[in-house]
């Protein structure tokens, strides 16, 4: 048995159970249905960039609340002006300005939203109940109420992103795929699970899974959540209940399309069992690459494979 196979055998013994509540699916059906009662309005402007093989646009669009989402749409310069495949690229935590000429070079469009309140041009206009001492910690914003939680808003923004892509004249709505790393990997799963318009998902070292364990470990952005519960232990059950609706380990149960996971075996943030567990709970067609000694990132070989996948769209 080779190294990766041995590591996978160990991971199979450490699969983290789901924490899904009985109304999990109903909650998301209701939220997505409400989102889609709001008609789509978007504007675009051509950007001046040095790339001679593509056109790039900044797009702004409305979503379920008063927030205006900024995104970037890139189209290969080709005689074919309509019916092109599109890769929805979701950035990692704190990323922005989603211009991906290396993906457009495979012959597809790309579309990437700036996630609200993470350094890009999407300014969050939602109102949150926030404890004063954690005002800067996004994953504590509204965490005492699943309907008013920050993560609900970015998940619905991801669904709206797919709806906007499907409405663009350049795009073949039957050939949309979702891809991202870390937070982007989580959002690619969300988009595929909730939109009904994604052909395949490529979550790479996806974050936001096994959230009880993330809070216990104080891992990444959930360190602030751990600190809240340290100072306010009376909120523990409420917070854990809220997080269960946004846990990717639970969200994968709504996947129906092929999903290709990538896991770095030395990832210190989304540790292997936090990625392998959602993979194990996925009942849709699936695959996984376990990459030895890869940290919290995609390997070069995997990116090359992804580009081959996109080129076949």
Characterize the overall form.
globular
What is the CATH class designation? Answer: Alpha Beta
What class would the helix/strand composition place it in?
Answer: alpha/beta
Low-confidence stretches: none
Features:
alpha/beta; single chain; 9 strands; 313 residues; 9-stranded mixed β-sheet; 11 helices; Rossmann fold
Task: Provide a descriptive summary of the structure in words.
The chain has a single domain (3-311), classed as Alpha/Beta hydrolase fold, catalytic domain (Rossmann fold, 3-Layer(aba) Sandwich), CATH 3.40.50. 34% of the residues lie in helices and 20% in strands. It has helices spanning 3-11, 24-35, 101-104, 150-167, 183-195, 211-217, 223-231, 236-244, 248-251, 272-281, 300-311; strands at residues 42-46, 54-62, 68-76, 84-90, 109-113, 171-181, 200-204, 259-264, 286-291. Helix 10 (272-281) links the parallel strand 8 and strand 9. It starts with a helix and ends with a helix.
Question: What is the compact description of this entry?
Answer:
The chain is of the alpha/beta class and 313 residues long. The protein has 11 helices and 9 strands. A hairpin with a 7-residue loop joins strand 1 and strand 2.
Topology readout:
Layout (H helix, E strand, L loop, with lengths): L2 H9 L12 H12 L6 E5 L7 E9 L5 E9 L7 E7 L10 H4 L4 E5 L36 H18 L3 E11 L1 H13 L4 E5 L6 H7 L5 H9 L4 H9 L3 H4 L7 E6 L7 H10 L4 E6 L8 H12 L2
Parallel strand pairs: 4-5, 4-6, 6-7, 7-8, 8-9
Antiparallel strand pairs: 1-2, 2-3, 3-5
């Amino acid at each position: 048995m080779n190294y990766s196979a041995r590591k996978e055998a160990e991971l199979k013994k450490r699969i983290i159970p789901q924490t899904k509540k009985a109304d999990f699916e109903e909650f998301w059906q209701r939220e997505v249905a409400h989102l889609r009662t709001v008609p789509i309005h978007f504007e675009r402007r051509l950007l001046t960039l040095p790339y001679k093989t593509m056109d790039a646009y900044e797009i702004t669009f409305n979503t379920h609340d008063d927030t205006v989402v900024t995104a970037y749409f890139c189209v290969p310069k080709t005689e074919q002006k309509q019916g092109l495949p599109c890769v929805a690229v979701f950035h990692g935590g704190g990323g922005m300005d989603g211009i991906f000429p290396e993906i457009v070079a495979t012959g597809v469009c790309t579309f990437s939203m700036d996630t609200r309140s993470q350094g890009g041009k999407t300014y969050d206009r939602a109102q949150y109940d926030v404890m004063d001492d954690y005002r800067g910690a996004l994953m504590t914003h509204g965490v005492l109420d699943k309907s008013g939680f920050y993560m609900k808003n970015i998940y619905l923004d991801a669904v709206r992103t797919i709806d906007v892509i499907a409405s663009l004249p350049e795009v073949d709505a039957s050939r949309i795929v979702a891809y991202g790393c870390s937070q982007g990997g989580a959002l690619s799963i969300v988009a595929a699970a909730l939109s009904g318009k994604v052909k395949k998902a490529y979550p790479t070292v996806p974050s936001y899974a096994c959230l009880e364990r993330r809070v216990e470990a104080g891992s990444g952005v959930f360190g602030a959540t751990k600190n809240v519960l340290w100072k306010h232990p009376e909120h523990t059950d409420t917070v854990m209940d809220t997080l269960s609706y946004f846990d990717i380990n639970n969200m994968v149960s709504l996947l129906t399309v092929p999903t290709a996971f990538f896991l770095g075996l030395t990832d210190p943030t989304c540790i292997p069992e936090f990625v392998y567990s959602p993979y194990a709970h996925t009942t849709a067609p699936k695959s996984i690459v376990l990459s030895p000694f890869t940290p919290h990132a995609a390997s070069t070989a995997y990116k090359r494979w992804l580009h081959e996948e996109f080129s076949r769209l």
